[in-house]
Design brief:
Elements (H helix, E strand, L loop, with lengths): L6 H19 L1 H4 L3 E6 L13 E6 L2 E6 L5 H7 L9 E3 L5 H4 L2 H8 L8 E6 L8 H9 L22 E6 L7 E6 L2 E7 L8 E7 L2 E5 L10 H4 L5 E5 L8 H6 L3 H11 L4 E4 L9 H9 L6 E3 L5 E3 L2
Parallel strand pairs: 3-4, 4-5, 5-6, 10-11, 11-12, 12-13
Antiparallel strand pairs: 1-2, 1-14, 2-3, 7-8, 8-9, 9-10
The structure holds zinc ion.
Length: about 300
């Protein structure tokens, strides 16, 4: 028996092959993966910016919230994100400028249609800082400051959803992985932020990723490993190159930022956590970074949206 393929069939096969190749090459773009900055400032009252907060958008849905600093929840509202779409909230650490809006989100969620439990990830504790589980309980638990919201924490009490908090181990140099859905996962590694318990986060979406340094000075030299080949590296620019003492023990200098971005082979960098000591010094920051990093460097403002390059 002979077997022949008609011309329309051949054309169809070519079209299918072409469309599947296109899809696999750009599924981040196809799924409209975006980073939105909810807070580009630090803890100062005078920087005229919300404190640390970021959203990862996938297919028009706000999927991961990274940090919940002061004022970031107002920008969450302005972004038109829906709390019920969030797959997780993650914290870099529990300084006020990264965490204080957390109860604001949880109270606000009472008025949403959220039904799914909410995973919350952040570092385990140390002598100076609570673990993520402790932070959630000390904020919302039955002995917490906002114990009137304890239904969201105590699984024995009725609530439309419950918070499930998880502590990321502070094992040096070890990347921890947390899958959320088939196409979305989180990775974290401990970072040196002075004596505080702190982690950096990488959000993996389809075949792309966005990595957040959080606050750190990179003494552990772990960030480039976490951020390897990342599409967008969000770096916190809290100090100038001339900084010394406590500030330099807590934060990385611009030259170090350039070295990290280069070692990680980051496709692009977004500079955030901008403070009065670095605002107005963008040209200098860029100059120091460009000694080691040749990719695009963008300075973030509140509500800015960045696409995968
Ligand atoms: Zn900070």
């Amino acid at each position: 028996m002979t077997h022949s393929v008609s011309l329309p069939h051949v054309l169809l096969l070519i079209l299918l092959a072409f469309s599947s190749a296109t899809y696999s090459e750009s599924n981040c773009a196809q799924n409209n993966v975006k980073l939105q900055v909810l807070g580009s400032g630090g803890p100062e009252l005078g920087d005229k910016r919300a404190s640390s907060g970021y959203l990862i958008w996938i297919n028009g849905k706000a999927s991961v919230l990274i940090d919940a600093g002061a004022g970031s929840s107002l920008n969450f509202e302005k972004s038109s994100a829906k709390f019920e779409d969030l797959q997780a909230i993650v914290f870099s650490h529990f300084h006020v400028d990264h965490s204080v809006d957390f109860p604001t989100y949880i109270k606000g969620s009472f008025f949403t249609s959220r039904q799914n439990d909410l995973p919350v990830f952040g570092p385990e504790g140390n002598a100076l800082m609570p673990s993520t589980t402790e932070f959630v309980n000390k904020t919302l638990g039955d002995d917490g400051a906002f114990s009137y919201l304890q239904n969201f924490v105590n699984t024995e009490q009725p609530s439309s959803y419950h918070i499930q908090s998880h502590n990321v181990p502070l094992t040096p140099h070890k990347i921890q992985h947390y899958p959320l859905t088939d196409n979305l996962s989180l990775s974290a590694i401990p970072v040196h932020h002075g004596p505080l318990a702190a982690v950096a986060w990488r959000v993996n979406v389809f075949d792309c990723s966005i990595t957040f340094t959080g606050d750190m000075n990179n003494q552990y030299k772990t960030l480039a490993k976490l951020a390897k080949n990342t599409d967008i590296l969000v770096m916190h620019n809290a100090i100038a190159e001339s900084a010394k003492g406590v500030a330099a023990n807590l934060h990385m200098k611009p030259a170090e930022m350039g070295k990290i971005a280069n070692k990680a082979n980051a496709k692009s960098v977004v500079i955030s956590h901008r403070m009065l000591r670095t605002l107005g010094h963008e040209a200098e920051t860029k100059q120091f970074m460009e000694k080691n990093y040749r990719g695009p460097i963008n300075f973030a403002d509140d509500l800015d949206v960045f696409l995968i390059p």
